[in-house]
Amino acid sequence: MPPLSLYIHIPWCLKKCPYCDFNSHAIKAGTPETGYIDALLSDLSRDLELYHSTRPISSIFIGGGTPSLFSPESINRLLRGIEQRIALKDDLEITLEANPGTFESHKFAEFRALGINRLSIGIQSFDDKLLKKLGRVHSAREAVAAAEIAHQSGFDNFNLDLMFGLPAAGINSSEIDVATAISMQPAHISFYQLTLEPNTYFHKYPPQLPDDELIFSTQKRCQKLLADHGYQHYEVSAYSQAGLHCRHNVNYWQFGDYLGIGAGAHGKITQTLPHQITRSFKPKSPEQYLDDTHKNGGASVIAVAELPLEFLMNHLRLKQGFTVETYQSATGLAMATLEPGLTACLQHGLIIHQDNRYHCSEQGWNFLDNVLEKFMP
Asked: What count of other Cβ atoms lies within 10 Å of the Cβ of residue 61?
């Protein structure tokens, strides 16, 4: 069995950002914090019973929304309730997503005292003009302060989220953002391009974005800057200091298993290979989720014919790629099921076979969607 992680979704934010396609909702007065923690723990109990899961949890990721809006008392009750229901590994990684607003960052020390040992802070930019364009509610000054408070609170492992290809960005805006982030000495930096996702305000009313050539050159310059300062590019948009990659996300990308609880949360559980790998999903509406009539939500078994693509969609995001053994053990399938797409990608230089590993070339990584198209069932 692959490692087992736990994802917890808390769907409320101070404000819905115009580019965000996550299941998030503007917080209202009287948000049912206590009731939502109750619902999460009931959800977890049902999933553990449904999937007969006895594997210990290797990582927990509390995402959103903005989970740091919840009180430390509520997060403590959540974590203690999890401990009562399932075994946890000794070296458990617990990540909490947070925004750099003053209200949230002042709680960092309390979150650290609860056992949370990793923060992921949604900075996006250190430029007030760009933050306003993105609809962010924090300032550049608060972003810098949040990183400083994270250090002071005892977090030696935290991530800063940055975006590039932003509306009204200058030629050097992203390099300034990346350099500023590096100066904050985070263990991890996520650096990803703004995309106009369906069902967002930006998709309905598209802002003027830089041209593709400028975006690509910006990406390359910033990647070099990150590499020069010891940040290893281990996944398409993830960079970390040595040994400090996000273990929870790596489990996703290695096609590991995870339980997903909370409004709109998804999970993946391997029961038997290759015929029973199950995707679970919970209702997106917080009101429906809190109503608790959904029980364990819904689930569907991944068709065997779709497993090669499902596996590659994750593993090829990682710079290290995959081996024959990892493919067979994760899917229960023979390597022949990757043909003819694998041979075509090797011939076109999109995938490289080296030291018993298959991984994307630089061209393959830059055009990953084109690579994956060759494995469509």
From this structure: 25
Interatomic CA distance for residues 144 and 315, integer angstroms: 34
CB 234 within 8 A of CB 318: yes
Q: So what's the pLDDT on residue 294?
A: 66
| Bridge partners (DSSP) listed for residue 298 | 281
Q: DSSP string spanning 340-372?
A: THHHHHHHTTSEEEETTEEEE-HHHHHTHHHHH
Whether the predicted pLDDT of 369 surpasses 70: yes
Confidence of residue 31 (pLDDT cuts 50, 70, 90): confident
Instruction: For residue range 144-185, list pLDDT tens digits in order.
Output: 999 999 999 999 999 999 999 999 999 999 999 999 999 999
Q: How far apart are CA 208 and CA 197, in angstroms?
A: 15
State the Cα–Cα distance between residues 200 and 68, nearest whole angstrom.
23
Sorted by where each begins, the domain ranges of the chain are 4-250, 304-377
Residues in the chain: 377
pTM exceeds 0.90:
yes
Alpha-carbon gap, residue 93 to 100, rounded angstroms: 21
Residue type, 101: G
Q: What is the pLDDT of residue 2?
A: 87
DSSP class per residue in 251-315: HHHTT-EEEEEETT-EEEEEEETTTEEEEEE--S-HHHHHHTTTTT-EEEEPPGGGHHHHHHHHH
Q: Name the pLDDT band for 197 (thresholds 50, 70, 90).
A: very high
CATH code of the domain occupying 304-377: 1.10.10.10
Dump strand ranges (E) for 99-154.
Answer: 118-124
Q: Are 46 and 300 in contact (CB under 8 A)?
A: no
Determine the topology of domain 4-250 in CATH: TIM Barrel (3.20.20)
**CA dist., res. 239 & res. 230, Å (int):** 9
Number of neighbouring beta carbons within 10 Å of residue 335: 12
- Cα of first residue to Cα of last residue in the chain, in angstroms, is 25
Question: Which among 179, 127, 121 is positioned nearest to 147, based on CA atoms?
Answer: 121
